[in-house]
Amino acid sequence: MDAAILVIDVNKGIQTQTAECIVLAEILKLPLIIALNKIDLIPENSKQTRLTKVSNLIKKSLSNTTFKSSPIVHISATQTLDSSQPHTKFIDPLVDAIKLTIAAFSNQNINKIGQVSYNDDCLLAFDHCFSLKGQGTVMTGTCLKGTLSVGDSLQVLPIGVQRKVKSIQVFKKSVKSITKGDRAGICLVKIESSDIERGFLASVNSINKACACIMPINIVPHYKNTIKSNSQFHISIGYETVVARITLFAASDSNLYPQISDSNYLLSNEFLAIDEIDPKSNTISENKSSFSNYFVLLDWKSPVYIPISSTVIASKLDTDLAAGICRLAFYGNPIYLISDKEYPKWSSSSLNLFRIKEKFGKINRIVDENNLIGNEMFLNSSVTSFVGFSVDVLNDLNLVVASGVIEGTFGQGDKFKVRFPRNTDLYKGLTETPGPSSDKTAQINNNQQNTSKKKGMTTPNLISELPINNVRLDSVETIKNKGKNKSKLPKIDLGSLRLRIKYRKFINVKSKIDQNKHFTHLYQ
């Protein structure tokens, strides 16, 4: 398909189906001609006013699409067929628009037009099929690529049989071969026309059938409902429409896209599982930092023939048309097909999918400037599984004030040891609030500093004056003279602090958890 004509009833304007046709043309990147039909139903005295108004409304509706400059013509199919009226009046504007579109298309693709690769496998999409007595079954369609000649053996899809070409006709004239872009009738033998209505004729073994596929996901901007993993969508592939269950996931490696067609790479690498995508806010349910490539696994179970470079479109065709909402949800080009032979071993569990999880705990006590004891983080799990994991200390503003590593268990119960880098002054980090402080805190600090200056005193940090919650701080400075000259121990409000670990939990591997480079801090 090289271009499209969008026919709109001038008396009804853009309806739900009309809008969906515009979306389809945009997905397929087709030049578009807009034909306002049934202009004969408008009274002559108000026709020009009505046509101008409708044309302006359509231009406004298309202003944010690739079709904002598409030609709009006025036609009447009924009057064109009426022998009492000159046909040129009602059809010439459309013919002229088609000629201009073809000329523009040819200029933009001047290096592609007319180029045919005779080494390409043949692919012909047929949309009509009928029996011809004494000859066989004729299939009419368009050659999409390659060449087709009398005597060639072809696969007839979707019935999957192999037949030879008996004859070819183009506009009722017999020819020996056709090439890409030709519209023709292909006569085959030993096929019942009742067995098939539309499908593909293809070189033998050039098209594989698949029960599932993986593709990058492109959201249709006009689709308003949430797209959820494990939900079902209608999937249109070529002439086939099937129901598929979807699984959403993301890849963190920006170089993954060209490699994902390799099944070994798919099976050996790890992907973030996504619960849902909200098209209205263009966000996903998970933290998507470091994840830039989004994919969908489509599983429709039964084999479907998929031509190379097909565009797959997902929709909700069971949505009530009266609701006036777009039913087209997302689209993409498959980058990995799961064949009918491979499918029995495949499912979403074949992918290494993980979710980003968090655990929170408390600071039981501070040992020194590089070590603390935590608790209440592993009440329902073992500390041992998380040894070596990165831990963040969060303040009451949910800002990270220090980061360390779990070293192991401590004593009885759920307590654990956390070590911080040698260049970290844990006390300093916990008593200095990062980022802008609240107005109230700043005001209190200023008042205290002003009062201290008047009295000639040195005022400690505000946080150090807050109540102590089970704190023991052994200063680096030694305690001298057995308490007669002790170092002053600063006070820290542990109640305003909490510990957090972020980790990956794998869905299909029992008890497998880890932290990758996105969550692990490096300590040297």
TrEMBL record:
Biased composition (Polar residues): 434-451
Residues annotated as transmembrane: none
Keyword Protein biosynthesis attributed: yes
Keywords: Elongation factor, Protein biosynthesis
Domain Tr-type G stretches: 1-108
An individual GO BP term: selenocysteine incorporation
Tagged with keyword Transcription regulation: no
Gene3D superfamilies for this protein: P-loop containing nucleotide triphosphate hydrolases (3.40.50.300), Translation factors (2.40.30.10)
PANTHER family recorded: ELONGATION FACTOR TU-RELATED, SELENOCYSTEINE-SPECIFIC ELONGATION FACTOR
Entry protein name: Selenocysteine-specific elongation factor
Organism field: Smittium culicis
